[in-house]
Amino acid sequence: MRPYKHPAASELVLERVLYALSDSIRLDIVRHLAHVECATCGELDGGRPKSTVSHHFKVLREAGLVLTESTGTTHMNTLRHADIESRFPGLLSAILSQGAPAKRKAGAKKAKAA
Amino acid sequence: MRPYKHPAASELVLERVLYALSDSIRLDIVRHLAHVECATCGELDGGRPKSTVSHHFKVLREAGLVLTESTGTTHMNTLRHADIESRFPGLLSAILSQGAPAKRKAGAKKAKAA
Predict the structure, then answer these.
(1) pTM over 0.95
(2) What residue stretches are annotated with the HTH arsR-type domain (chains A, B) (predicted)?
């Protein structure tokens, strides 16, 4: 099995990191990884279909957020905390420290412009 | 002209804010607005086509980042700094304090997984 490719820390792009974290499934995966040393895809998929989760891991890898290593048939994922921190100081902790996002209510009233 | 609709501060969703800032044009608009009290769309469009810029302003408004008010035929935009700060403390400054993103080089080498 070919090893996954990952961008170097110096190649990380802010917009790509923000895009990777702009999806609630990917944000959940990163939140989970922030609290463990590493985790298999199965531990992080939340019971979602493999094809869906594979796409999300690809986005996270390409943004430089997650390192995936193959050990036999298992894929082990690690948060690239040090790389993100060296490239974008304070960014990841500022995002992950935010509380759980508010759920949008159907028909919720929006504030109008003054 | 009907006023633009804007979400209330309590309705802001983290993923939507991150998505809005995951585009370099929108990130530039927000960076610009962070340094001025307000600005017209024309001052922020960087010479881009109106249709393109209108879409970006819509995404920024719906994420709660920008307030657009119509005064006659002019649209005046303001960064909703206080609302974003009250909902997501430290987030906006952590994002805007990052340097200009690295440009991706064609054929740039990628680090392989260890």
Answers:
(1) no
(2) 16-93
What is the distance in angstroms between the Cα of B37 and the nearest Cα belonging to chain A? 16
ipTM field: 0.83
Q: Which residue of B has its CA nearest to A4?
A: B113
Residue spans of the domains in chain B: they are 9-113
Is A22's CB within 8 Å of B23's CB? no
Asked whether the beta carbons of B111 and A6 are under 8 A apart, the reply is yes
Q: Which tokens hold the place of A17?
A: 């990191």
Cα–Cα distances in angstroms (integers) from residue A71 to residues A1, A64, A68, A77, B15, in the given order:
10, 20, 10, 11, 32
Question: Are A10 and A87 a contacting pair, CB within 8 Å?
Answer: yes
Class of domain A9-113 (CATH, top level) = mainly alpha
pLDDT tens per residue across span B42-97:
888 888 888 888 999 999 999 999 999 988 888 899 999 999 999 999 999 999 99
Residue of A nearest to B98 (CA): A88
Closest CA to B113 of A96, A67, A57, A73: A67
